[in-house]
Amino acid sequence: MKRILLAPAFLALGATLALAAPPTVGEMLNLVPEGAQTVVAVDSAALRSHPKVQAWLLQQHSWTGAGQEIQQFLADAGLDPLRDVDGVVVALLGETHPTRGLVLCAGRYDPAALGAALVKRGATAFTLGKVAAYRLPDSGHHGHAAGVLAIPSSELMIAGEEASVAAALVPPHAVIPLIANEMASGHIDVRAPFWMVATVPPEARAKARQAGGHGEGEGSEPMRSIVLASGAVERVAAQAFLDDSLKVSAVAVADTVENAQLIRDTVKGALAAARLATQREKPELVGVLRDVEVGVSGNEVSVAATIPLSLLEKLAAEHNAGAMSAHKHHT
User: pTM of this prediction?
Assistant: First the structure.
């Protein structure tokens, strides 16, 4: 009889633990508000599982990518972004202000410690809907609304402008068309460690066309052509996968078929110029640039590149060595 009674208890415990798992990037997409013009996602947990990334993390004893003030805040909050954050989704809405948007972070947090660390630095605790939230100190920048950080659970944080955070706290809804359409067309896979989609506003396209028409000086033509061509791009999607190589692909949707062909030709010309520029100082990049695939289908331009991790490590080591040499020279 005891075994029979214990079975439901274990099932209930298992269900509770399942609910406590941090939301995936795909699940957080159901919280992105309508009107988002740009969405960027990073699956930190997937990146951490890569052997090369794991080896790098083992060398990190603390969060070293920030100044002393931020390190102290993270210590007070009991938070290590490199290990505690599993996924991040950034959405920019741009309806009332270019910086309007929000950041969703899935992971493992201590809400009490995080809240205390925020209040210690001037944040004000309040309730947004039924969720504990903190109004962050005014940044002092004219026209910028004070930010808000909400903690719906110990597995999710949402930060941004209050209206955007409030919109993300409503019950989950269908994935917004901007993302759903790119998923359906095969332009992005939300399981990729990194991906992004963006709509290019008409005013930004007009500025690109204007800027592209004022290129001056020898050697500026490839860049001028790229800027000018970008004025015809209505939407962009990109993603990256990581195994023994970094595989990057992107699709640009142009306003017309003719402009898509012009963009393809511009990209190919820029790659040719890049090969010429790197063949002497970085000859190992020439093969990578030569193998970049550029295609066009209707009004869509696609680009795909593969970069071996061994090459990335070599370039990073050379960069670090150069930085250290320059630092010694100046000191």
Answer: 0.82
